[in-house]
């Protein structure tokens, strides 16, 4: 369970660039909710995910996961309960390290790092099986440097790393935006499969309205640092792009003009 | 100019190169593995020698003195690490601050004298210049080679452990490391401590080798370390991919650097101009990869226009 209560964040306080990024966001997620998050540029989608991940401290409000208040925790400590995949394929992996070394790092998330060997033989066998399930042929390249992989392969690997140690909450921040459409579709399918099989509570930011409608059991829309729409259950299943745009116009009092969202 | 005098000077250059090779491995850990330029080394390259020599002059056992020298170096790294991670000072500036304060501290350790001698006949020195041309196990070249082998072996093992992997990942991608639950601040401090511990070890060995410690002996150490790292990269980056081989490459790079210096001196360069030469060599080697990519891009643009 995730409980976000009245979280606020303003960037560049007391300068000409002052910008309210999160304007009192409250959100409650049930254990197996898979929520898609949409909204225009600067609506606060990624900011919300970064607030949960603890990239910087929030100004006020609280963030509680499974009864544990993580609001004041440093980033590396809350990482124990979080799995994250970033927009930039470069961000989620260490390029100069091997595929299996990256997985071994992720497998120890939350453990104290000792002078034991960095990767055991049993682990290697397990990683081989898990990589094989991605269907990208990575199981035969386990000692290759991650920097040699394509963007799609790196995102798939990051996804596996994020879920290797089952997180309480999975944060996907436009993780397919930098990929070509075919690869993006493949990585999305993969994400859904992993989320379904592991019963993961998930927040997925996307720019693509179709994807936002198609995936997950609940959809929220953000605008100017606030959640302005929250659609779930039967209503979510019946949703179309037209209805979504109407709803946006009603909720925000303006028409929804964003080429990137319409065209994709 | 006679060739014999150059050949006579070569064993000394190799021995010095190997000792500075140990220091360069320390620089490699911060500069290449952690992706931090740590200028503490200019100070800790004198600290190790100062602590070791002064303790031995005070009657301490040589191995205990050496251990304390390493610990002193690690403390210097700790201070830089705390400046950087705890006070938000940029890494380069944090290193400069520690380096500067170490100058005073080193003097204090050395009883406020600019140098302190230690006599090879009276004290048990690990390596000495005196034996550089003898063919025995007392030869500093053999002893330093042995120390290098052990050091590289230990580091190879360490960077394969969970803790070592975390050091590598923090240097490769800090944001990702934090997302994997790694306290990157603590990791950076650890890396700086290990690096400066190794530098202090080299410092103590250098003091033994030359028979004295000088408060200025670390000046420009970072440049020599970078020279060794970069020379090995330019020469061996395509052959040496294994981590242990890369460390060996760094030591070889340091030896080559000192051989080149020796040759330049033999050709008649004024010793006082050495540091200028060192800086120029490093500047050129640092520029080579940059020029190479620029040249390739230019070539590409030109070619593109012709085809268009």
Gross morphology of chain A: globular
How much helix, percentage-wise, in residues of chain B? over 70%
How many distinct folded domains of chain A?
Answer: 1
Question: What is the string of SSEs of chain B from the N terminus onward?
Answer: HHHHEHHHHEHHH
The structural class of chain A is: alpha/beta
Principal-axes shape call of chain B: globular
Radius of gyration of chain B: 20 Å
CATH class of chain A: Alpha Beta
Round the mean pLDDT of chain B to the nearest integer and report it: 93
| CATH architecture descriptor text of chain B | Orthogonal Bundle
> Which oligomerization state do the chains in this entry correspond to?
heterodimer
Q: Tell me the series of helices and strands of chain A, N- to C-terminal.
A: EEEHEEHEHHHEHEHEEHHH
Number of helical stretches of at least 4 residues of chain B: 11
Largest sheet properties of chain B: 2 strands, antiparallel
Q: Give me the CATH fold name of chain A.
A: Rossmann fold
Question: What is the terminal-to-terminal distance of chain A?
Answer: 32 Å
Low-confidence parts of chain A: none
Q: How many domains make up the coordinates of chain B?
A: 1
């Amino acid at each position: 369970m995730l409980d976000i209560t009245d979280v606020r964040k303003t960037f560049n306080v007391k300068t000409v660039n002052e910008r309210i990024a999160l304007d009192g966001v409250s959100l409650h997620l049930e254990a197996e909710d898979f929520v898609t998050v949409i909204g225009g540029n600067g609506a606060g989608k990624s900011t919300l995910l970064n607030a949960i991940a603890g990239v910087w401290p929030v100004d006020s409000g609280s963030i509680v996961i499974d009864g544990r208040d993580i609001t004041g925790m440093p980033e590396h400590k809350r990482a124990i309960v979080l799995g994250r995949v970033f927009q930039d394929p470069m961000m989620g992996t260490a390029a100069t390290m091997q595929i299996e070394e990256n997985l071994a790092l992720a497998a120890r998330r939350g453990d104290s790092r000792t002078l034991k060997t960095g990767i055991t033989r049993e682990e290697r066998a397990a990683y081989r099986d898990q990589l094989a399930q991605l269907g990208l042929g990575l199981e035969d390249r386990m000692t290759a440097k991650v920097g040699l992989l394509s963007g799609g392969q790196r995102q798939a690997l990051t996804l596996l790393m994020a879920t290797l140690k089952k997180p309480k909450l999975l944060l996907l921040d436009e993780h397919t935006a930098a990929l070509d459409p075919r690869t993006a579709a493949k990585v999305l399918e993969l994400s859904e499969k992993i989320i379904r099989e592991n019963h993961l509570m998930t927040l997925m930011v996307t720019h693509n309205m179709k994807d936002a409608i198609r995936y997950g059991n609940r959809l929220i829309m953000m605008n100017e640092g606030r959640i302005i729409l929250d659609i779930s259950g039967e209503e979510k299943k019946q949703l179309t792009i037209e209805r979504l745009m109407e709803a946006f116009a009603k909720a925000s009092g303006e028409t929804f003009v964003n080429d990137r969202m319409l065209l994709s | 100019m006679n060739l014999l005098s150059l050949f006579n000077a070569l064993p000394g250059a190799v021995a010095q190169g190997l000792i500075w090779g140990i220091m360069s491995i320390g620089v490699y850990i911060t500069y290449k593995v952690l992706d931090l330029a740590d200028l503490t080394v200019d100070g800790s390259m004198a600290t190790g020698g100062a602590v070791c020599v002064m303790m031995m002059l005070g009657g301490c056992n040589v191995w205990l003195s050496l251990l304390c020298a390493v610990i002193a170096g690690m403390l210097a790294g700790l201070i830089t690490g705390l400046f950087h991670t705890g006070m938000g000072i940029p890494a380069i500036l944090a290193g400069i601050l520690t380096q500067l304060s170490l100058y005073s501290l080193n003097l204090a350790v050395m009883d406020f004298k600019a140098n302190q001698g230690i006599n090879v006949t009276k004290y048990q020195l690990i390596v000495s210049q005196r034996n550089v041309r003898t063919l025995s196990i007392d030869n500093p070249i053999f002893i330093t080679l042995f120390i290098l082998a052990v050091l590289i072996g230990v580091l190879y093992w360490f960077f394969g452990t969970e803790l070592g992997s975390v050091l590598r990942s923090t240097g490769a991608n800090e944001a990702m490391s934090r997302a994997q639950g790694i306290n990157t601040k603590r990791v950076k401090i650890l890396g700086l401590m290990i690096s400066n511990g190794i530098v202090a070890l080299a410092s103590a060995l250098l003091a033994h080798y030359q028979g004295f410690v000088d408060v200025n002996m670390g000046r420009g150490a970072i440049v020599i370390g970078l020279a060794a790292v970069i020379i090995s990269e330019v020469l061996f980056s395509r052959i040496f991919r294994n981590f242990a081989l890369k460390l060996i490459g760094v030591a070889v790079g340091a030896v080559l650097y000192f051989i080149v210096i020796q040759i330049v001196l033999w050709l008649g360069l004024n010793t006082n101009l050495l540091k200028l030469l060192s800086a120029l060599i490093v500047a050129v080697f640092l520029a080579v990869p940059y020029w190479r990519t620029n040249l390739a891009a230019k070539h590409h643009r030109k070619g593109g226009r012709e085809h268009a």
